[in-house]
Amino acid sequence: MEHSERKIDLLNQAIEINNDRVAGYQKAIELISNEQVGELQSLFNQYKMQSEQFISEIQPFLANVGAPMEEGTKVSGKIFRMWMDVKSLVSPSTDQAVLESCEKGEDEFKSTYNDILEKAMVDCPEIADLLRAQLAQHESAHAHIKELRDR
């Protein structure tokens, strides 16, 4: 695979996992209970917007090589969101189930971004700094969701 193709692939993988995160937090907003709507809705919207910002930071790299941007989400992300629906229906605490699902989603995001970053450092160092900075921003969101889940 040539350099520009590897770069496009890595960038689109990063966009795809961000699309998953946006869709996951949108699903979480739909599932939270009325008692938690204010606090959790605001937080989930913040993290959804964070991924939208990440996508907007990645787009120029794709535009520079004339590549289309990934619009979809991963199949595993779609399955995960369906599982969130089911879990929230059978869980005694919907909010706790949603937070557990969000934390698992954040784990997946982190794992995927680490894989993308590792490949970018070897194949496309010109995008590694951006991905590293985004992952660092994500770390605090992940820690906060984990903290809320553990309460």
Strand content: under 5%
Regions with little confidence, pLDDT below 50 for 5+ residues: none
Number of strands: 0
- Outline, from the CA principal axes? elongated
Percent helix range:
over 70%
- Series of H and E elements: HHHHH
Compute the number of helices: 5
Calculate the mean pLDDT score and round it.
85
Q: What's the story with the biggest beta sheet?
A: none
CA radius of gyration: 16 Å
* N-end to C-end Cα span: 47 Å
User: What structural category characterises the helix and strand content?
Assistant: mainly alpha
Set out the fold topology:
Layout: H1 3-31, H2 37-64, H3 75-90, H4 94-123, H5 125-150
Helix pairs in contact: 1-2, 1-3, 1-4, 2-5, 3-4, 4-5
